[in-house]
Structure formats: C-alpha cells, structure tokens
Design a protein that fits this description.
The protein is of the alpha+beta class. It has a domain at about 40-115: Winged helix-like DNA-binding domain superfamily/Winged helix DNA-binding domain (Arc Repressor Mutant, subunit A, Orthogonal Bundle). About 55% of the residues lie in helices and about 10% in strands. It contains 6 helices and 3 strands; from the N terminus they run αααβααββα. It has a 3-stranded antiparallel beta sheet with strand order 1-3-2. Strand 2 and strand 3 form a beta hairpin. The chain starts with 12 loop residues before the first helix and ends in a 5-residue tail after the last helix. The model has no long low-confidence stretch (mean pLDDT about 90).
Amino acid sequence: MTGDRCELLCLDLPRAERLRAARLSDDAARLIAERAKALGDPTRLTIANALAATDELCVCDIAWVAERAENLVSHHLRALRAAGLVASRREGKMVMYALTPAGAALLTSLTAEVPA
C-alpha cells in the first residue's frame, strides 16, 4: 500500500455489495452532517452541553453559563434549532430551550470519553 490507496484491486464483492445496500441515503447523510456541523462550533457545543445538564434554560441563563452575549447565544440557538438539536417554547416573555433527543444523542456520542 502506498499512501492511502491499495496497489492491487482486492474488492470483496459480496461484502461490498451488502454494505453498499445498507449505506446511509444521501438525505440521511446530509442531515447527520448538518447536525454534526452545528455542534462543530465551540460556543454551540458549550450551549448544548449546558442544556444537557438540565431540563431547559432561557437565553439569559444560557448566556450566563456560556459567558457570551445574549444576542450571540440567540444566534447560536437558532442554528441549533435549525439543525433539529434543540427545541424552544415560549413561556410568557421568555423563550425556553431544551435539547431534542437527536441533540442529546449526538452530544453524548461527541463527548464520550472526553474530560470536562
């Protein structure tokens, strides 16, 4: 093997065909990539991690925990919501945010075996 390519075509056709038939659809791969991309920003990852530690938080609380301006936190929350990783609900004049099951699962997989 030179570099990252085989020097010889050694395709295990039955296995390769089985894996090809079971691969992610283009739409599913695109959705997963967008979700991963949404958590690829350190501020968004910090926000998601804070939301994972409790049931829900308002923007003011998230801004305090993340040590970021509320308008910046709102921007990041919109990106997380667009990716389907957080959900929001209005409670009077406050907007409360919580991780979705997809957000919690992705965060858990990304932060596994990582020191705090």
